[in-house]
Amino acid sequence: MSEPRKLEVLRAIVEDYVHSREPVGSKALVERHHLGVSSATIRNDMAALEDEGLITAPHTSAGRIPTDKGYRLFVDQISAVKPLSAAERRAIQALLEGSDDLDDVLDRTVRLLAQLTNQVAVVQYPLLGRARVRHIEFVLLAPRKVLSVLIADTGKVEQRIIDIAQDLPDDAVAELRGHFLGSLSGTPLTLLPQNLQAVVASCQPLRRPAAQALARGLEALAASSREDRMVMAGTANLARSNVDFPLSIGPVLEALEEQVVMLRLLSEMAQDPRGVTVSIGRENPYDGLAEASVVATGYGPDATAKVGVLGPTRMDYPTTMAAVRAVARYLSRILGP
Amino acid sequence: MSEPRKLEVLRAIVEDYVHSREPVGSKALVERHHLGVSSATIRNDMAALEDEGLITAPHTSAGRIPTDKGYRLFVDQISAVKPLSAAERRAIQALLEGSDDLDDVLDRTVRLLAQLTNQVAVVQYPLLGRARVRHIEFVLLAPRKVLSVLIADTGKVEQRIIDIAQDLPDDAVAELRGHFLGSLSGTPLTLLPQNLQAVVASCQPLRRPAAQALARGLEALAASSREDRMVMAGTANLARSNVDFPLSIGPVLEALEEQVVMLRLLSEMAQDPRGVTVSIGRENPYDGLAEASVVATGYGPDATAKVGVLGPTRMDYPTTMAAVRAVARYLSRILGP
DNA sequence: GGTTAGCACTTAGGTATGTCGAGTGCTAAC
DNA sequence: GTTAGCACTCGACATACCTAAGTGCTAACC
Predict the structure, then answer these.
(1) Could you tell me the CATH superfamily of domain A129-225?
(2) Interface test with A, best of B132, B221, B257 (most A CBs within 10 A)
(3) Are the C-beta atoms of B125 and B150 separated by less than 8 Å?
(4) pLDDT under 50 in chain A at which residues?
């Protein structure tokens, strides 16, 4: 029993199963792939593969389907990168032209990726590390409610309503704005927390409490801002591949809707900052995704923000991985300098 | 054959069917509801109702289920408003306290509504008609790309990247900003289009082209901005009530994802600006929603923005309508003055 | 006229049964 | 290590049958 052939058999099983979504048997295997041996030999190989936990049989006299572990081996060692088709390249190119708002770019990107892969696509908002303070705005909405807006020179705009503990007249708010802006304009967002303290300290004591509240708000804006949001598209693709989620797509939809779950999953996945990372079935930390796989990678200057695809474990990994990687590269380029 | 009893029979059929999701027959009907007549009489009534197209039988020897027309009559004439439970009132109250950002309010609201109704909830961003210009910001991102931000005194913040046709130095952009802001601060957003022309006209001729581009951008920000966006929650509820969508929930998810479809639907529905409007099954202009109903109403000062719920035609209309109305009132109050 | 009882008729759905085919595991021979 | 052959297992499918629910209709009833 040759080891290379065994891997070849696993590859064939994965490919056939992904293609036909039906358990694949020894006979069909030798017919479709020209392995130079008989079905009996393949049966022996398959028994070995089953012993190793790489494939499994749904019932006694059915063919085999890959296990999560089998997919894992396939992804890690066997699969070859599948280049994108010309049409796909063209679709990405076409998208590049209509570049507009950041929101717009991400929206288009995620739709494209969903369409390319026929799956659910997810894009995390990028966090722009090199950003500096461009403008700060305070707007008094109600007696103690101030809308604060932080604009970075990268185009990032964040807003939040802040409760201040004291009544301030309109012009006092304007003065605070001037004070903050004068001191902080050009400050890198990463340094904002330290510098904010100095600004607060240099305020009139009377206005210290309000300034403190505003500073905390700005700090939150700079830090926790948009990189904890995401956009997605293609949920309808889940319904089409209904068969692939034996139980129900309910838990999957729940996971997608609880963005926190998805974001944590995405950030935990990417140990390898360059290549595409795959999380398969029960490898996912969230139970609702036990029958799903996520293919993701980073993009942007630091590859910190993630873009990915979610689909059934029975997924065309090579193609999906190629699409995710291509789209991530494109995103990096369009958002780059 | 008495007309009032016929309506009573329809009411009973709708209620039973919504409850049991199974076709309801004449015998079960007389048992569950104490109509003072025999099953044979009910059969006659049901035959009449079927002739009028209000109910239908899935097959010869099954009970009847309501048609879209039947639901329509039920909603319009029969159903009584079902008051919310104390627990539900409490849930809404609790939400009222953590009011924060507008984004945050809408997000919480839509989640709450989804949970209350066990359905998909949708909220359209409000357009704030009385808004005035609070601040305008231009940020030069790249040689000919300007990020423009429009802040209204209502807390609305809109941004967009604008291509200007000429190279401008940083300080020229800043000067333009000052010029725009000085002339337009306090202008109601509705008057922005006219006033912008005057501002452009008063610019240095050299900078006219850039000013023109920026003006168009601002106009777009003021007009087409957020009221064409929406938030939704509870898509997982679709999967749970899988049975209710015989074909697939795919088309429904598609409709939800194509926000344009939903937004048009919502805006077309609300002829009646005060009450809750219902669109049932094939009444929906979009084919994918042929098996779905939408319950919606307006909220906010002019009731122009919409909040609603989408579910299967087999839906508990009285409860859903009550929830939508309550949430809309709550939203109006929290966003009001 | 509206209401009721009774009855023949229709049909979905469940269950028992048989057949077919795909697929496996094992053994013995190559 | 590979192959052919064979007995065995089970799911999928088809058939037949039965039951329960429900209808429509007719004739009697108030």
Answers:
(1) Enolase-like, N-terminal domain (3.30.390.10)
(2) B257
(3) no
(4) none
